[in-house]
């Protein structure tokens, strides 16, 4: 196994690192690589600096992606941390099983999904990814150690959503959920404004629900968009497998200028007629719509982008409306803006979810007003009793984030025992002073 000095980024490409990377394929090579004392990272689908270690070493786990065992009667799957959720869906949906929780990209690894305790379009009834993990195996100096919620509850909670700070995740035992087929019946409804969107999310009885929001609309049209509700359906995959396309170069800044974004949003919303639309889609196209375009992050140009994702409690929906209004007024948003209803499910001390509503908006990094806007937005989220998603963050400050995560001290206590020398520390952990008070 060789170490390679490289420049690398998270998915947003706005924050960068230079350091040495190793890509082990077997447990002995992983053990050797970890002696270099750096964090384990996955496919770097986190948007900011959660998987970066500037000036140091990092161990990329993507080659450790083997399926270790599967029980077809119970849906129990043991898999190495580098396996991607999209590949698990592709392999097991034809057999009647699928991951219980899927984020917005199939390129996320199992280890990354655990480290960020990811959520999906069914969080309001299925909770977070970590709640469907039966055990996780960490690579320690003395060898692999299996951690379970029954035997090691505190360490298990510190690992779920723990940003990889308890040690390199070697493998995990997952509880898959049954699926009747490889299809999703989708109902799309045009929503006129924010209040109607919240009402529609609250009234929805669909297992999967997600909203696209026009983050440029203002006043009476603020928060207008499209609600997608999905139901798993019987049958094989409809149509041939899609062939992903690639973005061959960094797009010019004009592509995401305010007039172009407004024009695109208007077209995107009017695709769905007033009466709504029903259609059947393959599972991966519903769960991972942007994966059909490899390297879509290059659409934001060579300077990349940031994503602002927050969640506020259910009774703070008016505050979320004010947050969206501030974004719309600033004119910095891209066409990618998502609104979802969340349930209370969370598996770890630093897990993002709470019962309420989450808003995610992509913003090109070259917008000069972005740092000041972000500072204002994070204060609004904190004052509303909400929090920012660390898997997406690249701009927050340590004091604000500490106020958003009341279990931070309990997490710190477990991390101090699991990694006393700080060998797993990443750029995000340093920036936000997560392992010690600012």
From TrEMBL:
Keywords: FAD, Flavoprotein. The keyword Flavoprotein applies. Residues 13-179 form the FAD-binding PCMH-type domain. InterPro entries: FAD-bd_PCMH, FAD-bd_PCMH-like_sf, FAD-bd_PCMH_sub2, FAD_lactone_oxidase-like, Oxid_FAD_bind_N. Pfam families: FAD_binding_4 (PF01565). One of its GO terms (molecular function) is oxidoreductase activity, acting on the CH-OH group of donors, oxygen as acceptor. This is Decaprenylphospho-beta-D-ribofuranose 2-oxidase. It comes from Rhodovulum euryhalinum.
């Amino acid at each position: 196994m060789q170490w390679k000095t490289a420049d690398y980024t998270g998915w947003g490409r706005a924050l960068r690192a230079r350091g040495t990377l190793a890509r082990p394929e077997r447990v002995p090579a992983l053990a050797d690589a970890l002696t270099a004392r750096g964090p384990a990272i996955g496919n770097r689908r986190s948007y900011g600096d959660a998987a970066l270690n500037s000036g140091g070493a990092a161990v990329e786990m993507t080659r450790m992606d083997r399926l270790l065992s599967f029980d077809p009667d119970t849906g129990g799957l043991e898999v190495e941390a580098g396996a991607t959720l999209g590949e698990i869906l592709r392999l097991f949906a034809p057999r009647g099983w699928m991951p219980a929780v899927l984020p917005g990209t199939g390129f996320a690894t199992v280890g990354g999904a655990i480290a960020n305790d990811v959520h999906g379009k069914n969080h309001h009834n299925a909770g977070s990814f970590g709640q469907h993990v039966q055990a996780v195996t960490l690579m320690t100096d003395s060898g692999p150690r299996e951690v379970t919620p029954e035997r090691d509850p505190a360490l298990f909670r510190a690992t779920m959503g723990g940003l990889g700070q308890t040690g390199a995740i070697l493998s995990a035992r997952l509880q898959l959920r049954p699926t009747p087929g490889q299809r999703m019946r989708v109902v799309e409804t045009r929503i006129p404004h924010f209040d109607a969107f919240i009402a529609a999310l609250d009234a929805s009885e669909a297992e999967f629900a997600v909203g696209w929001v026009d983050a440029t609309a203002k006043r009476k049209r603020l928060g207008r968009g499209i609600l997608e509700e999905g139901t798993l359906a019987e049958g094989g995959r409809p149509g041939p497998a899609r062939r992903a396309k690639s973005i061959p170069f960094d797009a010019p800044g004009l592509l995401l200028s305010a007039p172009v974004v407004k024009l695109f949003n208007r077209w995107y919303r009017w695709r769905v007629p007033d009466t709504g639309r029903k259609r059947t889609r393959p599972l991966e196209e519903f769960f991972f719509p942007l994966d059909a375009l490899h390297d879509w992050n290059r659409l934001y140009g060579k300077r990349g982008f940031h994503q602002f994702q927050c969640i506020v409690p259910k009774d703070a929906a008016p505050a979320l409306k004010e947050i969206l209004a501030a974004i719309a007024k600033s004119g910095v948003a891209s066409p990618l803006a998502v609104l979802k209803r969340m349930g209370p499910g969370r598996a770890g001390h630093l897990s993002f979810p709470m019962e309420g509503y989450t808003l995610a908006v992509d913003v090109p990094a070259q917008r000069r007003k972005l740092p000041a806007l972000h500072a204002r937005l994070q204060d609004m989220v904190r004052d509303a009793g909400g929090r920012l998603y660390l898997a997406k963050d690249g701009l927050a400050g340590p004091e604000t984030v500490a106020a958003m995560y009341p279990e931070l001290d309990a997490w710190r206590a477990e991390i101090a025992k699991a990694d006393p020398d700080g060998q797993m520390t990443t750029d995000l952990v340093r920036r936000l002073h997560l392992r010690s008070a600012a």
